[in-house]
Amino acid sequence: MATLLRRPDGLRAVGPMVSLVQLIASSLNTCLVFLVPEDRLFGAQFPNGTWNGIMGLLERQEANMTGLALTMGPGREQVVVIGEWLYQDFRSLTYKYPVPEADIAGFVKPFTMQVWGVFLVTLLAVWLSLLASQTLQTNDGGRTGEGSRAQIVDTNLWNSFLWAYGHPLAQPSAWWPRGGVRLLAGVWLLLTLVLSTIYRSNLKAMLILPHLPLPFDTMEELIASGIPCFVVPDTVLHGNIMRADPKSQYGRLRRNLVVHLDVAKATRDNMQGKHASLASHNSILTIIHNIFKKTSSCPIYIATESLEKDWKFFLYPKTSKLREKVDVIIRRLKESGILDKLFEEQYKYALHCLKKRSKGVTNQTRALEFVDFYGVLSMYCGGIILASVTLLLELLLRGAASPVPCSSTPR
Q1: Cα–Cα distance, 76 to 59 (Å, whole number)
Q2: Who's near 329: CB < 8 A, 6+ residues apart?
Q3: Comparing C-alpha atoms, which of 84, 30, 33, 75 is closest to residue 56?
Q4: Would you say 115 and 225 are in contact if contact means Cβ atoms under 8 Å apart?
Q5: pLDDT class of 7 with cuts at 50, 70, 90
Q6: Residues 222, 229 contacting (CB under 8 angstroms)
Q7: CA neighbor of 67 nearest in space, from 51, 52, 54
């Protein structure tokens, strides 16, 4: 009978490990007995040289092998022997996948601030150019007798303003350019058509498929963000973090470290955005696979940066006679491609989530809120206020103007 270990968090070995140990037991024609260490730890060494967790069970020869793949850390080679390597693993960061949120300034996002600045400067330049061109044209035509100089200036000013500012907002103008002004007005009309079309297209694309910036995608970005990070205690990773230099990445990460054994709680907190998680990449794939299997959603993402590459093995007691038999089976499974197939089948939902992330797609939608309309409504209210002030000024100026007396000729 082979005594194998399961995960110290109380859950049975998940992912391809279940199928793998079942194949090994079937090939050896033996039964499996799963053990869980009382302290529910992977294993750390005490000052007196003894071990706790899984490593303690192997050291005391209470188990024949591990039922999950482990990493060889400092001191472990003194109490156990390693078997045939299973796969190459690495550490990955994971966090809650962002969802669309209300953005007051969303209507200005289709263009960058630099583009908006150039556009506004061009707008002012076109207005002044149209005004100057009309003024010169009026003076050259000698039509000052058609009205007072002030009326002509007001008319030119208003026509230039409507043509320059009205067309970008898709508003018509009753004034029609004549003479040399037509070239400048026509170029501006074409330019505003192109810009308004691009603006509407980009705005529609942002609303249909919004770009979701990730909170972090590297270890440095995580440290800079100040988001807490969860790790499982008494693992090789946890030991490396605790021994790291304070100025190194792991040393700076230690300031915001969250350490406990409740993996289920850590998974929920990770999905809610309370903290990030740093763990084995394959362990994270298993969690994502199980979440999608239950909820048909991908609520967390994996950062693209990989950390601490290592190899995963089954570990055995020093005097184990089981290692050679299991190593032969593992080599055959790898050479035949069955081991790779096991991993692919057990992580298929997680791989589906990773493909969606690479395409920048999220299956989480959001209903519109009042905040989504604040930006456009503020622009609308600003236009109403500006129009009201203009109307009041016109009424005041018209009332202040002295009436022209009618001249009568006696008959």
Answers
A1: 10
A2: 23, 24, 27, 28
A3: 75
A4: no
A5: very low
A6: yes
A7: 54
Per-residue model confidence (pLDDT) at position 368: 55
**Contact predicate 12/18, CB 8 Å:** yes
Distance separating alpha carbons of residues 409 and 407, to the nearest angstrom: 7
Q: What is the mean pLDDT of the segment spanning 98-113?
A: 76
Going by pLDDT thresholds of 50, 70 and 90, the confidence category of residue 265 is very high
Q: Are 256 and 227 in contact (CB under 8 A)?
A: yes
Which own/partner pairs from 218-222 qualify as long-range (CB within 8 Å, at least 24 positions apart)?
218/303, 218/304, 218/305, 219/93, 219/249, 219/253, 219/303, 219/305, 219/307, 220/249, 222/93, 222/253, 222/276, 222/303
Residues 6 or more apart whose CB falls under 8 angstroms from that of 240 comprise 250, 308
The average pLDDT across 117-128 equals: 89
pTM: 0.60
Question: Rounded to 5 degrees, what are φ and ψ at 253?
Answer: -70, -30
pLDDT at 146 over 60: no
User: Alpha-carbon distance 122 to 116, whole Å?
Assistant: 10
75 Cβ contact list (under 8 Å, min separation 6): 45
**Closest Cα partner for 295 from 265, 268, 269?**
268
List of residues 6+ apart from 312 with CB closer than 8 A? 69, 70, 71, 85, 86, 87, 88, 89, 280, 282
Kind and range of the H or E run holding 317: strand 307-317
